[in-house]
Amino acid sequence: MKLSFWGADHEVTGSCHYLEACDKKILIDCGMRQGEDDDDGERETPIVPADIDYILLTHAHIDHSGRLPLMAKYGFRGKIIATRATGELCSIMLRDSAHIQEFEAEWRNRKRKRSGEEPYEPLYTLEDAERVMKCFVTYEYGQIIELCDGIRLRFVDVGHLLGSASIELWVQGGDTCKKIVFSGDIGNLNQPLIKDPQYVKQADYVVMESTYGDRNHKPVGDTRAALTAIIQRTFDRGGNVVIPSFAVGRTQELLYYLRGIVNDGDIKGHPGFEVFVDSPLAVEATNVFNQNINGYFDDDAMKLIRQGINPISFPGLRASVTSDESKAINFDNRCKIIISASGMCEAGRIRHHLKHNLWRPESTIVFVGYQAEGSLGRALLEGAKQVKLFGETITVNAEITRLDGTSGHADQAGLIRWIQAFEQKPQRVFIVHGEDEVCDSFAALVHEQLGLETTAPNFGASWDLKQDICLDSGTVFVKNKQPEQRTDRQSTVFRRLLAAGQRLLTVIRHNEGGANKDLAKFADQVNNLCDKWDR
User: Fold this and answer.
1) How far apart are CA 142 and CA 181, in angstroms?
2) At residue 42, does pLDDT exceed 80?
3) Integer Cα distance of 37 and 147 in angstroms
4) Vertex 128, ends 10 and 493: CA angle to 5°?
5) What is the C-alpha separation between 16 and 179, in angstroms, rounded?
6) Between vectors from CA 369 to CA 322 and to CA 257, what angle results, nearest 5°?
């Protein structure tokens, strides 16, 4: 019964935990590294995609699900277990991510072709994303799921995103049964649309996030009133309100607030203003929200629905899907609200809207979510005077502000409240999914304040859960260290070939005990292939 840590260890993105138990190999999340965490180099892990039996998914955000198509590309053919809403959101988010990968490869290859360089291969393709979606098996909150002999699990609503969950995992190893709880991303209280986090009462081991483990959110006050004030003063000076927003979750929360503002006429002197959701992904995600009401929406949202009111729709709401529709927004001189992805300003259409608005002192850029270290959003919040967009230096004259009360993550007090809910002390709490110093400081806080044994594991650390013994302390990575130079051929195409070979070994092992005639035929086919390529 061994637990290893292969992502979001002293980092905020790229969540991935690896459990070996009951002769099964299981990943809990398989996320993509983003912001400063994404160093353009792939950290090597011993995980062979073809060997993985199950992937348990806490929620659909790309930093928890974004490498699933890569797993399929390299031979994963197991099952992905998630809530129904998570499965539906992943269906659009992973396809969107694949589109971004392909678009970036096309852009790079135009340059490489001119310079005579080897073609760049995308991290994964739409075909890989569609293949991995066939692996999803979805369940509702509260169901006890018999994963395999000796392993059961249950999803608990953790209030972070539609369909987000903590995972309770019961593992039987011989005469020893251990319960492991993976927190996923713990939600904030009183968010619109979705329910507050539900708490788990018992566990032997807990793996919990620490995104805001070093701070508390400012008093929430009235988020709607704060947003109204931002819109009013921006429109009064003739500017646009530009909101970099995560397409899934945060955008729908903003629409909830804006419906109330528009419906009650809170903005004075600017009748009929328009709100543009400029993100095909956000438009599709909003449709998923509208289709997943029962069992997911909170009481306030359900009250509106029972009155025949769509809580995230209103007059003046415009959806921009095509690139032409997106471009037209910036040629409209009327005051408007633009909600666009990505939430950290690292990619997508938001960068075009920033280019057209950052230099304007009358406009306002409103941040409504976590900004990872090294991201453009973080730089703007920390007071950058100039930024580079599409090769052009843009002077920052716009008002830069943060809308407090909109974080989808629990703050330090919320994290403590979540871990305090355990009625009996877990043997150990593993602290992950936080910036480098935050993981250590929050682990120390939980130990000192609650008397719990805590560990903030490094990348690659592993633990024997039967004996509560560290098997490997892992690796400490130095921030901003330049990765070793490797050609794209070496890092993608050859790795893909290597993964195919590893999958072949897995398939061979699965055929043990088969009919001799079939095995002989299989062996001949493998040898013929080797004869063709042996050099």
Assistant:
1) 14
2) no
3) 32
4) 75
5) 19
6) 75
For residue 249, give the nearest of 403, 380, 409 by alpha carbon.
409
* Closest-CA residue to 416 (of 214, 132, 165): 214
Q: How far apart are CA 314 and CA 311, in angstroms?
A: 8
Name which of 500, 440, 475, 432 is nearest 75 in CA terms. 500
How much is the mean pLDDT over the chain? 89
The answer to whether 452 touches 25, Cβ cutoff 8 Å, is: no
| DSSP codes, 136-161 | EEEE-TT--EEEETTEEEEEEE-SSS
Is a pLDDT exceeding 60 seen at residue 99? yes
| Residue written as token pair 């509260």 | 142
Strand partners, 155: 167
Options 3.40.50.970, 3.40.50.720, 3.60.15.10, 3.40.50.1700; CATH for 2-216+408-472 is 3.60.15.10
Q: How many CB atoms lie within 10 A of CB 375?
A: 22
Using one digit for the tens of pLDDT, what is the confidence trace for 282-326? 888 888 888 877 788 989 989 998 999 999 999 999 999 898 999
- C-alpha distance across the termini of the chain, in Å: 41
From start to end of 236-304, where are the E strands? 241-244, 274-278
Give me 374's structure tokens. 């090294």
Domains of the chain by residue range? 2-216+408-472, 223-402, 488-533
Top-level class of domain 223-402? alpha beta
Q: Please give the Cα distance from 299 to 192 (Å, whole number).
A: 10
Tell me the two tokens of residue 174: 């011989």
Q: What three-state secondary structure class fits 73?
A: helix
The pair of three-digit structure tokens given for residue 328, joined into one six-digit string: 């037209």
Q: Answer for the pair 100, 73: CB distance below 8 angstroms, yes or no.
A: no
**Tokens 């929620």 identify what position?**
59
Structure confidence at residue 191 as a pLDDT band (50, 70, 90): confident
